[in-house]
Amino acid sequence: MTAQSVILPLPSDHARFIVLRLKNLSLEALKDKLEELFTTRDRLITQHPHAQIKTGVAFGPELWTKLSEAPQGFSQLEPIQGSFTMPVVPADVLIHIASARSDICFALSQAFFEGIQDQVEVLDERVCFRNFDGRDLTGFIDGTENPQFKDDRAETALLGEDAGIFEDGSFVFAQRYAHDLDKWKKLKVDTQEQVMGRTKLESIELDDDVKPDNAHVARTVVEDEDGEELEILRHSLPYGDGRGDQGLFFIAYTKDLTRIDQMLVRMFGTSGDGIHDRLLHFVTALDGAYYFAPSEELLEEVL
Q1: Averaged pLDDT score across all residues of the chain
Q2: pTM
Q3: Among 96, 126, 144, 250, which residue's Cβ finds the most Cβ atoms within 10 Å?
């Protein structure tokens, strides 16, 4: 089995994330459009071999059950009402397009939507970019804890042989965050570092004796009963315009959605310890949902 091409490589400089519901589009028409998308992708890869073109298609639980049986542990994300609210906006399809060139991301989106614009409900089409040396708009490096080597990334993100036909598939969590950068920029750098739990310039995690319990790093790191960190594979990228609609499209691939569940309840203050992620005073979750990205072989089969 082979993972879809966008999952294991390091993030590209540009990405588009398309989130939609089918509305009036039939399953057969969706399959045809995805085939057109892949045909266009393969042609562009041939024409522009250095453009690092990669794609991933994932399906929400409701739609996936119409295409195939469900992998174990696949259900929709549950909303959270804790110290802060985390909404859930279920969707049918998530398309992750990545390239070293923004025009190619646009061309692939255009190829997919051509002729079906009025038949689908587009919940989001987010244009994202690599910001300087991989920094979020807060100025901190995003994804410092990501596994860097391909085997480690595969171990983190992909279902194993015991998953049967779902081997080399991956669960996906996608959620858009809006940033209040005016409020954030009023903080001094040392205070920002206390919020994040890392140094701003070098992205070095603060020592436990000085890192607050409500720091972002402290709330998002999930460990097993032996104290080993349970990693996820982030592909998040910033988005924004100069007028102020700015933030982060958070997307993570994982072999186990309970890791995301644990991370979110710790962030939003419903884990039972009375602590929430202090970063939520400066960023707001606007949506969120779970998806499944099958292997290339299973995707070809269901299409």
Answers
A1: 96
A2: 0.96
A3: 96
